[in-house]
Amino acid sequence: MLERAGPLTQTQICLAGDFTGGCACKCLKLLIAEGYVVRGARAMNRHRTSIGPRPWTYVRTSKVLPQAGTLRPAAPTAQELCDVMNSIIRRTNVAA
Q1: The domain at 1-63 falls in which architecture?
Q2: Strand partners, 57
Q3: CB distance 58 to 10 below 8 Å
Q4: 51 — phi, psi (to 5°)?
Q5: For the chain, domain boundaries
Q6: What's the whole-model pTM score?
Q7: What is the C-alpha to C-alpha distance for residues 26 and 29, in angstroms, rounded to an integer?
Q8: Which residues contact residue 93 at a Cβ distance below 8 angstroms, ignoring those fewer than 6 apart?
Q9: Over the stretch 29-62, which tens digit does the pLDDT of each residue have?
Q10: Distance, CA of 68 to CA of 6 (rounded, Å)
């Protein structure tokens, strides 16, 4: 979202992505910690005036995002499931 729209405030990110404020805050903190986002300048309102503290904007860095794994792991076979269940049953009998 920050790559497409440029610097955004946390409120703008919440509205554009349909996130809660807490979710956006946590995601931004994690992205800042990993180096994908930095805190930019303070935002101005449309009249270029402010009363009270102005919100921070957040800017995307040039760090490349990791490729998301789209491959799902293979489903276990019936024999593998049977082996897992047998090992669980054997462990509970031994402990008793």
Answers
A1: Orthogonal Bundle (1.10)
A2: 9
A3: yes
A4: -125, 115
A5: 1-63
A6: 0.58
A7: 5
A8: none
A9: 998 999 999 988 887 766 666 666 788 888 888 8
A10: 23
